[in-house]
Every structure is written in structure tokens, then in C-alpha cells.
Amino acid sequence: MKIIKYFFEFIIIIFLFFVFKLLGRKLSSDLACLISNYVGFNFRSKKRISTNFKKAFPRLSKEEENKYTREMWCNFGRTFAEYVYLKEFRENKKNHIVINGSEILDLIKSSNVPTVFVSGHFANFELMAMELDRKNLNIAAIYRPLNNFFLNPLMEYWRKKYICNFQIPKKIPGKSADGTRQFIKAIQIQTNIAVMVDQSITQGKRIDFFGEKAFTTSIPSQLALKYNYQIVPIAIRRVKKYEFTMDIFNPISIDKKKDDELSIGKKINEKIEEIILKNPGQWIWTHNRWKV
Predict the structure, then answer these.
(1) Do the domain assignments include residue 288?
(2) pTM of the model
(3) What is the pLDDT of residues 155-209, one digit of tens each?
(4) Whole-angstrom Cα distance, residue 234 to residue 274?
(5) Fewest CB within a 10 Å sphere: which of 23, 40, 45, 166?
(6) Residue 248, SS3?
(7) CATH code, 191
């Protein structure tokens, strides 16, 4: 049954991509916002989203929760429509993206210190690794392959062509290949690595996230402790619907004599929390982040 489901999903998505390409970036973004908002807000379960909001905002009113939920679904739709415009973003002829903290990127390039960039699913999260690659930062991106094996080859093609060529897949048992060899290669040649740290995982360390334990990837802390990588948080914000601001933060302070995977993971989670709280409508609240 899953094969049939995935196939029909693939046909619908390809049809929508075709429509979005015909409409142009701004009009397709607005249309996708409306569709996603209507479907997500009215037909998707609100229970998990509401539960997640209560963890981050214990005193959030129902009106505020609905507002942030609609903003989330709208951003989700816009991001979906923007996949067919990755080439346009890559060329950036219209200056769609402004970078705050570009001097930090310059220091990373000049110092030759390997860096792991940590972030979450904010705004159009795909554009962050793209911008790092455009800045010639020799970047590899760790990504989660889609469950839909009809659609995944297209997404992988776009990611390699327009985001960054060095893509490292996370292993999904029974569904995707293990990217361990690519990961080891990246470390050996001291490639900078970009990784999302806000997804629910089945392995890792249980670390506080908005006051509750959540399995958190230990990749950044392991890279820092074992391979002398520095950890640099990054984020992206959607501005005026169609444009973006990308923020590069100072490296997370690490003391190898005192810090371990848990303490470093806590510092990373605290930074992700801070970013989420500033723009709650631009994070994906549908993840079962606290799954145990």
C-alpha cells in the first residue's frame, strides 16, 4: 500500500511543481502558502503541534498558538514551492538573501579550522548550506533522505546540483544507505559540515530541550572533542515573504578539559531554543521532537 501512496504523492507533487514553475516564484509562494495553511490547519492533527507549543510557551494563549500555527503552515508551503526555484536562489541575482555575520565566515576561511555548522528547520532551511557553498566554504551537508523513494532521487539531484555537491545521507534502517563512508571522508579532508540538530532521532544523547529531555544528535560534540572542529550556530529568517536573512553566530565556547558530549549538546540546544523563540512561526512544530 505504501508504494501506491508514495506514487500518488509523487504525481501530485510533480504536478504542483509544474504549476509553481509556470506561476513564477512570488505567485507560487503565495499560492502554496494558502494551500498549506488551509490543508495543514484544517485537516492535520493539531494535538502534537499544540503539545510542542506548550513545552516552549507554557503561557501561550489559544489565539497566539493559532497565529504561530498558521505562520508555520504558510512558511512550510512557501518553502515547498521554492524547491523549483533553487537555481534562482543559487544565482542570487536579485539579492534574495542577506547575511549577518559574514565576517565570521571570512575568519573560518582564513583560519582553516574545520567547522560544523549547526542549525534547525527554520524558514527555508535548504538555503543555509547553499549560501555556505556559495561562499566557497568547502561544505558537506548531512541530510535525511525522504521516505518517498519516488520523490527522493529528484530531491537528491536538486540538493547536489544547487545546494552543495557533497551530500551525506543519514541512515534510515531498511530505507536508505548509510552515509558513514562519506562522513569519514569529510572528516579526513577536514571538510566543513552542516547538520540539522532539531529533529527527533532514535539514537544520541538525552539532553534538555525547552526543559524536557530529548534525544539529540551527538555529531557536533563528537566532531569538536575528537577532531577539533569548532561549532558555529547558523539560522535563517524569512523576511517580507520572499526574501531571507541568514545569521551566522560566534562559535560555541568549548573547554575540552571540562566539556563533554552532554554539556556541548546542552549549549547547542540552548542556542536553537533562542532562535526558535525569536521567530516561532518559522520553525516546524510538527516534529515529535521529544519522542522517547
Answers:
(1) no
(2) 0.95
(3) 999 999 999 999 999 876 555 566 888 999 999 999 999 999 998 887 789 999 9
(4) 12
(5) 45
(6) strand
(7) 3.40.1130
